[in-house]
Task: structure prediction
Amino acid sequence: MKKIATAIWQICLLIIFSFAGNYIANILHLKISGSIIGVILVFFLLYFKVIRLDWLETGANWLLAELLLFFVPSAVGIVQYKSVIMLDGSRFMLVIVIGTLTVMACTGLSAEFISRRRERNL
Result:
């Protein structure tokens, strides 16, 4: 029960950072999503050790584990646009494939960079 309460508290903390990012984006009239600003804020707070990783880790891991559920509504909603898909489906597929390959390449390169850096530090 304690682990569930900890995860809920950490998710609430992540939501607060998201709201803070939205607030910053609105106040400064930035064309960047507030959630991205929130992630950058969390990154810098972790980097400068203002907050500790264990304050967010359990909640963040749960959100990542359930990430697929966040895409179900958009996948179901796309059914409403059958005519657009029939007309431009090949373009959509091309964008999806290029986007997926780009994300995979960036993730792989980032993971390899971090792995090499950790090996050097040990």
